[in-house]
Amino acid sequence: MVDVTLAPTMRRPEKIYSAKATTDTRLLVLAPVAMVLTELVLGWLRGAYLTPGATTDGAVRSMFSYDATSLITLGTVLAFFVGHLAPVNWLRDNLFSSVGNAVMTLFGLILIYGMLSGLFGFSVSHATWTGDNGEACRPNSGACWPMVHAKFAQFMYGRYPDGERWRVNLTYFLAAIGLVPLMIPRVPYKLQNAIFVFGVFPIIAFFLLVGGVPGLPHVATEYWGGLLVTLVVASVGITASFPLGIMLALGRRSRMPLVRWASVTFIEFVRGVPLITVLFMASVMLPLFLPPGWNIDKLLRALVGVALFAAAYMAETIRGGLQAIPRGQFEAADAIGLNYRQKMSMIVLPQALKLVIPGIVNTFIGLFKDTSLVLIIGLFDLLGIVQQNNTDQKWLAPTNAMTGYLFAGFIFWIFCFGMSRYSAFVERNLSSNEKR
Amino acid sequence: MTIATDHRSTPEPAGGTARPSIASYIYQRETREIIFQVVLVVAIVAFFYMIISNAAANLRARNIASGFGFLKNVAGFDISQTWIEYSNVASYGRAFMVGLWNTVILSAIGIVATTILGFTIGIARLSSNWLIAKLAAVYVEIVRNCPLLLQMFLWYFAVLKQLPEPLSRVDGVVKSTSYALPGGALLNTRGLFVPKPEWLPGAGYVLLALIAAIVGVIVLARWAKARQLATGQPFPVMWTALALVVGLPLIVYLLLGRPLQFEYPVLGRFNLSGGMVMLPEFVAVLLGLVFYTASYIAEIVRAGIVGVSKGQKEAAMAMGLSKGQTLRLVVVPQAMRIIIPPLTSNYLNLTKNSSLGGAIGYPDMTQVAGTINNQTGQAIESILMLMAVYLTISLLTSGFMNWFNKRMALVER
Amino acid sequence: MKHTMKLGLAAALAIAGATATASAQAPKTLDTVKQRGSLNCGVGTGLAGFGQPDDKGAWTGLDVDFCRAIAAAVFNDPQKVTFKPLSAKERFTALQSGEIDVLARNSTWTISRDSSLGLAFVATNYYDGQGFMVKKSLNVKSAKELKGASVCVQTGTTTELNLADFFRSNKLDYKPVVFEKNDEVVAAYDANRCDAFTTDASGLYAERLRMKNPDENIVLPEIISKEPLAPAVRQGDSQWFTIVRWVHFAMLNAEELGVTQKNVDEMLASANPDVKRMLGKEGEFGKGIGLENDWVVRIVKAVGNYGESYERNVGSGSRLKIDRGLNKQWSQGGLQYAPPIR
Question: What is the pLDDT of residue C260?
Answer without folding.
Answer: 94
